[in-house]
Design brief:
This protein is an all-alpha fold and 242 residues long. 64% of the residues lie in helices and 0% in strands.
């Protein structure tokens, strides 16, 4: 048993070092989560002002900020963006298993199309000591875990799309009632121009962004980024990250 007394301030300094290390090791995720929250707050403020302007135009009393956050208008504006983002990742994750783009760091090497061998993927008997437990498992657990990223992204997409449709029909019917028109059912709303306009305007922008990244990264570089090839890499180099 040590007889050494703790040095004053040592625990505080150690905690500060751990905090700095945590921030450094997780800075990418922390940055984007912070940016997400800032943008979400900004959207709420701007949306609240726009919504109240519309209410005044219709001769109705404006809502408080807290009340606006519980409206279907705010919910549909948020969820319609979420579902398109997760659709983008879901499609990209599964498409890049089999589809290739010569010269792009966003593509696998040209001879590695497909799910690859157990040895390449370090599953089953090829799992390492530090591999996730389900990577070494047999049967359904390995099947599920080996596709878990795409399955979760796809599930979030479907759930957020469902939430968009539910919030969307509520927002649409509120507008219908203000204009003294009959509301529609959820199934009717799913076939409406409003629903598909909201959906497709987001899908097309996300798919364009993915295609642009895959193609532009063939010829353009960003030094030090894993999303780019090394600056001096050949344009035809495929699956190489900087």
């Amino acid at each position: 048993m040590s007889d050494k007394a703790p040095v004053p301030g040592q625990n505080t300094a150690s905690a500060a070092r751990r905090a700095r290390r945590f921030v450094r090791h997780n800075s990418l995720g922390l940055l984007f989560m912070a940016a997400f929250l800032i943008c979400l707050a900004g959207q709420a403020v701007a949306g609240h002002a726009e919504f109240n302007n519309q209410l005044r135009t219709d001769g109705m009393a404006p809502l408080t900020f807290g009340a606006y956050l519980t409206t279907s208008d705010f919910a549909v504006d948020v969820t319609e963006n979420w579902q398109s983002e997760y659709l983008q990742f879901f499609l990209y994750i599964f498409a890049t298993v089999y589809l290739l783009q010569r010269g792009s760091p966003e593509s696998k090497e040209l001879d590695r199309s497909g799910t690859e061998s157990d040895r390449d993927q370090m599953v089953g008997e090829h799992a390492r000591d530090d591999s996730p437990r389900w990577a070494a498992a047999k049967g359904w657990r390995q099947v599920i875990y080996s596709r878990s990223l795409g399955l979760v992204m796809g599930s979030i997409f479907l759930l957020s799309w469902l939430a968009q449709s539910i919030a969307g029909v509520a927002a649409y019917n509120e507008q219908q009632l203000r204009q003294l028109q009959a509301p529609v059912s959820w199934s009717q709303y799913l076939s409406s121009a409003d629903f598909w306009s909201r959906t497709l305007q987001n899908w097309q922008s996300e798919l364009l962004a993915v295609a642009s990244m895959a193609i532009l990264a063939i010829y353009l570089r960003q030094r030090g980024s894993p999303e780019s090839k090394p600056v001096g890499a050949s344009h035809s180099a495929t699956g190489v990250e900087g």
